[in-house]
Amino acid sequence: MSTPVPPGAPEIAPQTPVAKPKKKGTLLKIIGAIVAVIILIGIIKSCSGGSSTPATTSTTAAASTTDSTAAQATTEATTEAPKPARDNSTAALTTLGAGTFVVGTDIPAGRYVITPAGGDSGNLFIHSPKQPLYVNEILGQALGLGVPSVTVDLLADMEVEIKRISEVTFTPAETVSATTLTTGRWVVGIDIPAGRYTAAPADPADAGNFFVHEKSGLPAVNEILGGDHGVPNVAVNLKDGQTVHISGITTVNFTQ
Fold first, then answer.
1. How far apart are CA 210 and CA 184, in angstroms?
2. CB-based burial of residue 13 (10 Å sphere; 0-12 exposed, 13-18 middle, 19+ buried)?
3. How far is CA 77 from the centre of its chain?
4. By C-alpha distance, which of 130, 177, 154, 144 is closest to 250?
5. pLDDT confidence of residue 195
6. Do the Cβ atoms of 171 and 112 come closer than 8 Å?
7. Is the pTM of this model over 0.85?
8. CATH number of the domain within which 155 lies
9. Is the Cβ–Cβ distance between 149 and 182 less than 8 Å?
10. Under a CB-based contact definition with an 8 Å cutoff, are residues 158 and 126 in contact?
11. Which helix (H) or strand (E) holds 29?
């Protein structure tokens, strides 16, 4: 019901109530939304950072393992690498009689075991301008003075002289590292391991010359070994690259 207006009083128009805006609730919703966005961004960054760091660590670890394996393989290859073998592919089985012959023309260059045929015995000379006494041996034991074989490298243009032997066989030599050597020339590190040895003739009555030459060609050891006029043995330090030259002695044993 409306309230009666007294006579003579001015009429007042009724007023419609105005609803107040709900400012507090709207503000809370905005703040909540902002917080939610901040939290979401943090979660995204956290997830992104967590996945990249382990990936980087894993990649680094894998690279490190690969490098380590490669280094180990290189070390093993270096350690286990065999010493270079002698290439004797140019040598060929050859037979020569008495006379003078040129290496590279009458016989291919290479490393040979030189033996006389049958019971022949005579002189074998091999020389070059730079090595006039490369080989000077009595080859064959028919007279009881010579050696049964000589093992040497024949180099191009060397001269081979055979006297009083009707037939001499040149057999390509096989390379075997050993501590027993015969008449000839031998390279330390290929034909015999480097090391300290006592060298002595297999037969104490067997006498001849024993040399060890440096790479430069200079003698490190020069002895008459065995027999009545030589020493029974000699102590030597053999180094890779040196050459052992045995002349007039059938077999020399090297003991450590």
1. 10
2. exposed
3. 6
4. 144
5. 98
6. yes
7. no
8. 2.60.120
9. yes
10. yes
11. helix 23-80
| Domain final position from 121, 145, 175 | 175
Q: What does the buried/exposed string (b/e) look like for 46-71 if buried means 16 or more CB atoms within 10 Å of the residue's CB?
A: eeeeeeeeeeeeeeeeeeeeeeeeee
Per the structure, the count of domains in the chain is 2
pLDDT tens-digit readout, 70-122: 555 444 444 545 555 799 999 999 999 999 999 999 999 999 999 998 888 99
Residue 190 CB burial class (10 angstroms; 0-12, 13-18, ≥19): middle
The structure tokens listed for 157 are 């243009």
Q: pLDDT of 168-225, one tens digit each?
A: 999 999 999 999 999 999 999 999 999 999 999 999 999 999 999 999 999 999 999 9
- The verdict on 171 and 250 lying in the same domain is no
- Structure tokens belonging to residue 200: 């002595």
Residue 56 to residue 63: CA distance in whole angstroms: 11
Tokens at residue 192, please? 């015999």
Q: Which domain holds residue 167?
A: 86-175
- Distance of alpha carbon 230 from alpha carbon 233, whole angstroms: 9
